[in-house]
Design goal:
The structure is a single chain. This protein is α/β, with parallel strands linked by helices and about 210 residues long. Helices cover about 20% and strands about 25% of the residues. The strands form two sheets. The chain has a six-stranded mixed β-sheet with strand order 4-3-2-1-11-12. A six-stranded mixed β-sheet has the order 5-6-7-8-10-9, covered by helices on one side. Helix 4 packs parallel to helix 5.
Length: about 210
């Protein structure tokens, strides 16, 4: 299964269209959007999600209005927010929003609520899709502190999904592997960043940056 991963679009319709154009010959089976589709609204959600062809699934981010999930339904996007779904033979579990932040934002959950929701859906999941990283993994901000979620880290350690996909921390794109889980932060799509992941018997992931071409 080949997955195109994009995150942190922040209403950049142009960037999404460029990424889709760049990957049109890649033959992806699924596009995963790991939050911050819009920038403190839901105004551009319909344009953005409609521009993504084929099968797609998403969670909202902290900069998305909570009712953006209504646009998921309108555009045929699989809603993974607080849910699980089987796609192409793999079980996906997801959660949007973010853990509490030191500034005002549209969509956050307490660490306790994050753990409760994910703990109820992650048993047996192959792929975990969140907006927020697990604490300590690809989550270092420009100010040097860790912005990830302790609750997500606990869930990963408890259930050991094969793949953990997230965004949120723009400054820490990367790929890591730890204790049997591959972690991918594609970086912000608004800056032309995305990832391509192949998941079969093993997982291979590559980061891409349009601006580097």
């Amino acid at each position: 299964m080949r997955i195109l991963v994009i995150s942190d679009i922040h209403s950049s319709v142009r960037s999404v269209k460029q990424i889709i154009e760049e990957t049109k010959e890649v033959n992806v089976n699924l596009t995963l959007i790991s939050g911050d589709i819009t920038h403190f609204s839901r105004a551009d959600a319909l344009k953005i999600l409609s521009a993504i062809p084929g099968k797609k699934a998403a969670v909202p981010g902290n900069c998305d209005a909570p009712d953006i999930t209504e646009v998921f339904e309108e555009t045929g996007t699989i809603d993974l927010h607080g849910k699980r779904a089987e796609i192409e033979g793999l079980v996906f579990a997801g959660l949007g929003a973010s853990n509490p932040l030191p500034f005002s934002t549209l969509f956050t959950y307490s660490e306790e609520r994050i753990f409760t929701i994910l703990d109820s859906i992650c048993n047996g999941a192959d792929v975990l899709v969140t907006h927020t990283p697990p604490y300590g993994i690809l989550d270092r901000t420009a100010f040097g502190h860790r912005g990830g979620s302790e609750a997500i880290r606990k869930v990963v350690e408890k259930y050991r999904p094969r793949l953990s996909i997230f965004g949120h921390i723009h400054e820490s794109p990367g790929i890591e592997e730890k204790d049997g889980t591959v972690f991918v932060n594609p970086g912000p799509a608004k800056d032309g960043r995305f990832a391509i992941i192949d998941i079969d018997d093993k997982i291979s992931a590559e980061l891409h940056h349009l601006a580097e071409k």
